[in-house]
Amino acid sequence: MAEFFRSIYDKIAEIWYAIYQIFEIPLFPVGTSNITLGDIIYFLIAVIALIYVSGRVRKFLVSRILRRYPQNKGAIESSGTIVRYLIIVLGLVIIFQTAGIDLSALGILAGALGVGIGFGLQNITNNFISGIIILFERPIKVGDRIEVGNVNGDVVNISARATTVLTNDNIAVIVPNSEFISSRVINWSHNDRNVRFWFPVGVAYHEDPQKVKEILLQVANENRGVLQNPPPEVLFEEFADSSLNFSLTVWTTAYTDKPKVLKSELYYSIFEAFKKHNIEIPFPQRDLHLKSGLGDNISPGAVRPKT
Q1: How far apart are CA 234 and CA 268, in angstroms?
Q2: Fold of the domain spanning 195-276
Q3: What is the pLDDT of residues 4-51, one digit of tens each?
Q4: Largest CA distance in the chain
Q5: pLDDT digits over 191-241, tens only?
Q6: Which helix (H) or strand (E) holds 196?
Q7: Of 119, 170, 251, 265, which cross-links 227 as Cys (Cβ 3.0–4.6 Å)?
Q8: Closest Cα to residue 266, out of 191, 216, 206, 204?
Q9: What is the pLDDT of residue 303?
Q10: What residue spans define the domains of the chain?
């Protein structure tokens, strides 16, 4: 029985040695090092494991550690992403060294890649560098309400190449990072989510402006989405052709990402309040004045109106 198990052990050892010899066959040189199939497999497995571990570390850092400190969501997400990039860079250096790859030879390879990047991968490189700038300078952060080009929505993710913006229609728009560096970006919540909106209101000329002001302020103060500090205001804008024009200005945090909803709620309430207090909402009108003696100037061939 011992002879049987020894023979099986010897066969397994022979097979393992044959596989080991295959993995140790030099494929191509890099500097003073010869890259083998085993080095390539080790490199791929190590890189995949590094990316996975860095993602888990970032998630743990963001959800368990940084959440305890008084920072906004954008700062927390940016810090987690920067830590992940640092882990990946340090991990790649360690992987190269443990794989026995001569790092000095990578300088020439990096130079060659740089030329290739300059010609063929300009957009990818531009977006990657722009992503790093965004993470460090933080002109936009996760959770910000932004407007870039014709895209308006909330930032939900900032990656190395692009930023994901979620619109009010629940549509995710992938915007290249370079757009935020080279284009004009409107950030509605850069400092905080308090935003002021202006809503025009017109009434007839015979209405009392002071009474209109009181009604508009009452409507604004009764809306739960309107902040009391800073308080809402009513500005008398102008004497227009057919109306007295006012502007109701309100501050809000809850409706930063949906101003049209707040506008609709206020206008519904304003209409009901004006109806209750008999405040007339005008429409464009024109008065026609006929001068006396017009009939004397009618030509002989014209048809006179019947009396």
Answers
A1: 17
A2: Alpha-Beta Plaits (3.30.70)
A3: 666 676 677 767 666 766 666 776 666 666 677 777 788 888 888 988
A4: 138
A5: 777 889 999 999 999 999 999 999 999 999 999 999 999 999 999 999 988
A6: strand 195-203
A7: 251
A8: 216
A9: 46
A10: 12-120, 140-187, 195-276
Query: Sign of the CA dihedral 286, 287, 292, 296?
Result: positive
User: Taking Cα atoms as reference points, which of 200, 199, 232, 210 lies closest to residue 279?
Assistant: 210
CA distance linking residue 157 with residue 144, whole number of Å? 10
Whether residue 201 contacts residue 216, with contact meaning beta carbons closer than 8 Å, is answered with yes
pTM for the predicted model, two decimal places: 0.56
Q: For the chain, what is the radius of gyration of the CA atoms?
A: 36
Q: Which of 274, 273, 276 is nearest to 207 (CA)?
A: 274
Place of tokens 């009108």: 285
176 within 8 A of 123, measured Cβ to Cβ = yes
Instruction: Give the strand order in the sheet containing 172-176.
Output: 172-176, 162-166, 151-158, 145-148, 185-187
Domain 195-276 in the same topology as domain 140-187: no
Sign of the alpha-carbon torsion through 266, 272, 277, 281: positive
Taken in order 43, 48, 50, 51, the sign of the CA dihedral is: positive
Among 284, 214, 272, 269, which residue's Cα sits nearest to residue 246? Answer: 214
Residue with tokens 């728009």: 173
